[in-house]
Amino acid sequence: MASNYTAPVQTLIDELGRLPGIGPKSAQRIAFHLLKVPADEVTRLAASITDAKSRVRFCDRCFHVADGPLCPICADEGRDGRVLCVVEESRDVVALERTGEYRGRYHVLLGAMSPLEGIGPEQLKVRELVARIEPEGVEEIILCTNPNTEGEVTAMYLARLLKPIGLSVTRIASGLPVGGDLEYADELTLGRALEGRRAVED
Ligand code: ZN
After folding, report:
1. How far is the centre of ligand 1, averaged over its atoms, from the C-alpha of 184 (Å)?
2. CB–CB of 26/33 below 8 Å?
3. Ligand 1: centre distance to CA 66 (Å)
4. pTM for this one?
5. Which has the closest alpha carbon to 149: 190, 112, 202?
């Protein structure tokens, strides 16, 4: 895009434009918003980003956000390690935890498969998922990827990969808004979808 902005402004717009869901127009709007607001407001925002990035990491085992080597769920001995709920992002863990229905553990893929964007299993934490199964004595995998195209593709891929290992592989029940994100479902709907999970058929 041709630009008449000064270098610092253009750099800001470019960096904002790299964020997910932020197109060129939004990037410009946010950049000019930031330039208009008081300096301390911008400093607070920048500090919160740097602070979160330096203090938060991903759990060594499940890739949920953590502030130590293990997230609180993996560190909790009271959780049932035989059941793993596979989700796309940490925010899905938070949504499922809100239901209060689930006592198993999680595995966060850090994304979903998207052939269009060149995201395959190698770009996700799939190898790490398979590696957990035997040492942790996992017996059931619940595929809780989002009910949209990428989420379904990912669930089908994982089902084909995991079923031959001899695990029970289930998919969270339909009833969730199709095309939507897990995180936007209310607790009751999500709790029911989890309870009504079904074995994945070939
Ligand atoms: Zn964890």
Report:
1. 22
2. no
3. 7
4. 0.78
5. 112
